[in-house]
Amino acid sequence: MTPERWKQAQALFLELADLPPEERARRLHELAAADPALHREVEALLDADRRTLPWLDAPAFPAWEPPPLPERIGPYRLLDEVGRGGMGVVYRAERADGTYTQVVALKVAATGLGDAELVRRFHQERQILARLEHPGIARLLNGGTLPDGRPYLVMEYVDGVPLDRYCDARRLPVADRLRLFEQVLRVVQYAHRHLVVHRDLKPANILVTEAGGQPRVKLLDFGIARLLEDEPGTAITRTVLHRMTPVYASPEQLRGEPVTTASDLYTLGVILYELLTGRRPFEGPPGLLVSHVLTQDPVLPSRAVTRPVDPPSDAASATLADRFGATPAQLARRLRGDLDAIVLKALQKDPADRYASADAFLNDLERHRAHLPVLARRATAGYRLRRFLHRHRTGAAMTAAFVALLLVAAGLFTWRLAQERDRARLEAQKARAALAFVEDLFDGADPDATAGDTLNAFDLLARGARRLEQPGALPPAEAAQTTHTLGALYLKLGDYDAAERWLTAALDRWHRLPRAEADAEAATLVSLGHLATHRGQYARADSFFAAALALPAGTPGDRAGRLVEYGDALAERQDYRRADSVLHRALALLPGTDPASEERRADAWFVLGTIAMNEADYARAESLFARVLAWRKAHLGRMHNRTLDVLNNLGNLYADEYRYEEADSLLSEVLRLRTALLGPEHPLTGEALNNLGLVAFGLGDYDRADSLLRRSLALAERHAGPMHRDVGMTMNNLGWVALRRNRPQEAEALFRRALAIMETASGPVSADAALLLGNMGFVLHQQGRPADALPFFRRAVDVRRQVHGDSSMHVAWRLFALGEALRDLGRLDEAEAVHRESVALRRALRPPDHFDLARGLDGLARVLADRDRHDEAIDAFEEALPIYRTYYEGNLLHPTLWALLRNLIASLNARGQYERAGQLLAELRAALPPGDPRHEDLARLQVAR
Description:
Blueprint: H1 3-17, H2 21-34, H3 36-50, E1 72-73, E2 76-85, E3 88-95, E4 103-109, H4 116-130, E5 140-145, E6 151-156, E7 161-162, H5 163-169, H6 174-193, E8 206-211, E9 214-219, H7 224-228, H8 251-254, H9 261-277, H10 286-295, H11 301-304, H12 317-324, H13 328-335, H14 338-346, H15 358-369, H16 381-391, H17 395-417, H18 424-441, H19 454-468, H20 476-493, H21 496-512, H22 518-534, H23 538-550, H24 556-572, H25 576-589, H26 595-614, H27 618-635, H28 641-656, H29 660-678, H30 683-698, H31 702-720, H32 725-740, H33 744-761, H34 767-782, H35 786-804, H36 809-824, H37 828-845, H38 851-866, H39 870-887, H40 895-910, H41 914-927, H42 934-943
Antiparallel strand pairs: 1-2, 2-3, 3-4, 4-6, 5-6, 7-8, 8-9
Helix pairs in contact: 1-3, 2-3, 3-10, 6-9, 6-15, 9-14, 14-15, 15-29, 17-18, 17-20, 18-20, 19-20, 20-21, 20-22, 21-22, 22-23, 22-24, 23-24, 24-25, 24-26, 25-26, 26-27, 27-28, 28-29, 28-30, 29-30, 30-31, 30-32, 31-32, 32-33, 32-34, 33-34, 34-35, 35-36, 36-37, 37-38, 38-39, 39-40, 40-41
């Protein structure tokens, strides 16, 4: 629709909106006959107006006068009123009980909020909000209830200036406004991670203070709008509650739909639009405002600052630009492109089309500031190239990068010059040829060197591939080395098809050379081995690594390096026994003083730490990761893929140890840095999404887990195809999410698909297949189908034995599951034998106070009790009890510890050991709150005596 037609539609809407229904219908009928297209637009506006929430037709803050208040509320003396709205009045108050001096903001709720249920929820929410500790959030200090039933809150008093007024008063340029807005995003992301949604963000709720000459933002009223939202079954009237500020409300809020973190992100887009243009994306009276928000696209910020305002006002372009210290044209140029795209992405109508989180929003602003391609824009070749050139302006910097990459491509040959004097001139010519080729083509291709501008790297590599295919582009040896470099870079960038093509071509070129280049050929074979491992082609990977190890090595360190690479590949496919053996062979070859050996030793430690983590030896794993992290941060920097590998594994380790808050923080950072370094479509970004999804699962945030895992699954399927192990593993993780959502049939379907993928990708005798066999057994057992679960558990035990050997915790864990299924089927002889084998393995592999041992003993004791062998059962229960007490920190109400104590009491009663049973019963009774139905269960135990 043209601007002229839109103005015509608006005018007709305003004219028709106030007409009586009969007259409006007649006019619409006439319009439909005269101009059907215009009729549809006007009808859409009228329909949007009809669907507007009723409260928008009333004033946002209905007039009301609060009842008189006492001079003091609790220990606070009221000083003066500092603001009021539909939900209440805010006063500046001071501590008046003489204990200490303190100025606070005291908010008293409006009349009509004295409902008992609301007060209960108010106090409950207050406790939640009190735990939000962030320097950017005004802290909740106290609260209570007035004699007339109105609740009040006592909050940190913030003597600041609203965000928009602060920026305009200081004529802040765009860059400074963005820095302040990034602070806001960090605060909002913190709150969202703690499951708190603001719902009423606006500049008036974002104050700016100054500390040490630096501006700092402080957000007010976090969570209060959510608390005061009316819910089904509560007697709260909409005319009293302050639901939202319409000009900042999201489309879903205006439609009365459920509000999520995506609504806050939309509102942040409105605020950023206003900060950058001085205008809001949509204006007008309530009905028209809502129709605009629901049906129209906002004007680009870069165009908004140059559009004339009718009638003229202080929002005129020149006045707005003067607030930024720039002309309208200069301001428009500054906003055009990246910032236009970022703001419009935040303002998408559909929540799914906005940024996935405040962190993603922040990441795009940081990429803009670093002159990296922003994710909100379509990544055309020209755009990527401009971003690339902006980051590499000086010829000196480009030359340095060229030379660095030349050393990678041609270092093998220049090193040999010093060793073979009779070939010096020829090798120098080769090095110069490689320099010219690399200098021309490969600057910036390695994502570790370019801060992840991987799309530019693909462009450069494609150009290099075309050049390399030209006859005589390089001498044969240099062509082989450069072909390998090309394949290795494609492998690092995640394009496995291109990597295989060029690495295979490099191997063929090495074989056609008259003089063997053993170290270079071995490097190509190692890369092919990793490629085959990534694709789940393990037999093929073994053959490549064996061929590499069979070639002569220049030094023991070179051979150790090949062994470390092979150990890494073995660990990736969970062949931990062989990986451990290979890695220790590598460490034995590494001298203690060679700098190259330090890096290889760190690489070996990293893989050994990964193995220890996956074998649940967390203390050893964390120690090894700490050593590797110190080395890589010192020598490679934090913003490097290999450093991020360590942070990623540390995050996984924290999750395995149930340190979910630490894991969430660390893995969120890994995802942000992976995205900045490699882009949102890289396989390693998908891996980061998967790992963060598992942390969300551990935190019980199953919606977030499902979203992250499905994004990871889409990337895995796109890069590796539908039958890759990464696809199977992500489906497995989604199966667990479905199970926790009480969707066992959906979980079973996901586990079955994942099992089929794993048996194809990794083989039927593999750790991956064993994992899914066990999970299939578990989901069937969970559905009360132990007979169906039994064959899966048996196969899982058998495959674990073949992969890990008889003496492995993996075997012990699967034996336990098998024993539980046998017990539920009443096959107690078999169940006892299986549990005894599980306990024997746990005694051999775990210290005597380890949870795994207690778990095995608990399972065995229950079978013994079922067989009326209570003396043996009591011994097993009693051995497990102190371990459980320590592990569950004395929480007797934890279901696992409670069940053991209950079963132990039953066995003690059966053997007449009433004194000990009575002691334990008294403990449990004391732990239970009054009225808990478990008191009846304890009474039955006592009667059984």
